[in-house]
Design brief:
Elements (H helix, E strand, L loop, with lengths): L9 E8 L3 H12 L2 E5 L3 E5 L5 E6 L13 E8 L3 H14 L5 E4 L3 E7 L5 E7 L7 E2 L2 E2 L4 E2 L2 H7 L13 E8 L4 H10 L3 E6 L3 E5 L7 E4 L15 E9 L2 H13 L4 E4 L2 E5 L5 E6 L2
Parallel strand pairs: 1-4, 5-8, 12-15, 16-19
Antiparallel strand pairs: 1-16, 2-3, 3-4, 5-12, 6-7, 6-11, 7-8, 9-10, 13-14, 14-15, 17-18, 18-19
Protein name: Glyoxalase family protein
Keywords: Metal-binding
Pfam families: Glyoxalase
Length: 285
C-alpha cells in the first residue's frame, strides 16, 4: 500500500450525492461492506477500518437523478489488500445475486465493476505486485482482458466474506471530463501528477510515485460534455492527500500560475479541474 501514503500524492476521500441516504446506506453496508463512521439525517461517512473515512454520502434536499452525458464521476475504486479479498467479495456478489457491470484483468490489477442504486460507478480491485508491472519508458503497460473468475474464486473458496478489510484504501478515481488538453495541464503542471498511460485521444491515466494510476480521465461522455447540475446525483468532490504543508503550498502556487482558481475555506484549499470536478487539497495526517 506504499502508493497510498506519503511521499506519494493520492486520493483519500470521495464525496458523492445520492437520492436516498437510507437506500444507499443499505447498499454500501450490505453489498460493499462499509461500516458507518458518522451519520446525520442527510449525510453519512463510511469507513473500512473504523478510523479513516473513504466515502461520504450526501442527500441534497432538492436532489435530482444522475444526468447522462455530463462530466463528473465515472467510478471510484476501492483497493483491497489481498487477491483473496477480491475472491471473497466476488463470491459474496455471486451468492447474493448482485449484478456486476464488468470484471477485468488489467495486467497491473484485477477488477470488478458495479454501480450503486443511483448509478454511481464503483470499481473494486486488487493490485498485482508492482515488481510485475511492465513499463514502456514512462508509460505503464495495461490492458482490458477478461478476468479469470474461476482462478480467482479458487483463492478464496473456503473463506467467508466479512465486509471490507480494514486495510482497504481509495485506490483511484476515474472522471469524465470535457476535454484532455487543458485537463492534462491542470493535473500535471498544476497538481504535479505524471502521465503514465494514454488511450488514444479519449483517455489519460496519471499518477504519483510510479503507481499505475491514481486518477483516470476520459472524454467518453462526449467532447465538450457539460458540468452536471449542482443538485444532481454524482460526484460532489474528492480529496487529494499531499505529503506535507510544503507540497500543499507549492501545489497551490502552481495551480495559480496556470490560472486555476483556488479558494481557501477555514484553512482548507479547494480547486476545480477545467471540467468542474471539485477537489479538496489536504495534507497527510
Amino acid at each position: 500500500m506504499s502508493f497510498h501514503q506519503p511521499p506519494v500524492t493520492f486520493v483519500g476521500l470521495v464525496n458523492i450525492k445520492v437520492q436516498s441516504l437510507e437506500r444507499s446506506l443499505t447498499f454500501y453496508q450490505e453489498v460493499i461492506g462499509f461500516k458507518v463512521y458518522e451519520k446525520t439525517d442527510k449525510s453519512a461517512k463510511l469507513t473500512a477500518d473504523g478510523k479513516s473515512v473513504l466515502l461520504s454520502l450526501e442527500q441534497p434536499s432538492d436532489v435530482i437523478p444522475k444526468k447522462g452525458r455530463t462530466t463528473g464521476l465515472y467510478h471510484f475504486a476501492l483497493l483491497l489488500p489481498e487477491r483473496s479479498d477480491l475472491a471473497k467479495i466476488l463470491k459474496h456478489f455471486l451468492q447474493t445475486g448482485h449484478p456486476l457491470q464488468g470484471a477485468s484483468d488489467h495486467l497491473v490489477s484485477e477488477a470488478l465493476y458495479l454501480a450503486d442504486p443511483d448509478g454511481n460507478g464503483i470499481e473494486i480491485y486488487t493490485d498485482r505486485p508492482a515488481s510485475k508491472w511492465e513499463w514502456n519508458e514512462q508509460h505503464v503497460v495495461m490492458a482490458t482482458q477478461a478476468l479469470d473468475a474461476e482462478n480467482l474464486l479458487a483463492e478464496g473458496m473456503e473463506e467467508k466474506w466479512n465486509g471490507l478489510p480494514a486495510e482497504t484504501v481509495m485506490g483511484h478515481i476515474h472522471l469524465h471530463v470535457a476535454e484532455l488538453a487543458k485537463t492534462e495541464e491542470f493535473y500535471t503542471k498544476g497538481l504535479g501528477f505524471d502521465v503514465v498511460s494514454r488511450y488514444g485521444p479519449q483517455a489519460l491515466f496519471i499518477s504519483s510515485g510510479k503507481y499505475h494510476h491514481h486518477i483516470g480521465l476520459n472524454t467518453w461522455n462526449g467532447s465538450g460534455a457539460p458540468k452536471p447540475p449542482a443538485n444532481s446525483v454524482g460526484l460532489e468532490s474528492y480529496t487529494l492527500v499531499l505529503p506535507n504543508e510544503a507540497s500543499l503550498k507549492d501545489t497551490v502556487a502552481r495551480l495559480q500560475e496556470i490560472g486555476a482558481a483556488v479558494e481557501e475555506e477555514k484553512g482548507v484549499f479547494i480547486t476545480e479541474d477545467p471540467s468542474g470536478n471539485r477537489i479538496i487539497l489536504e495534507t497527510a495526517k
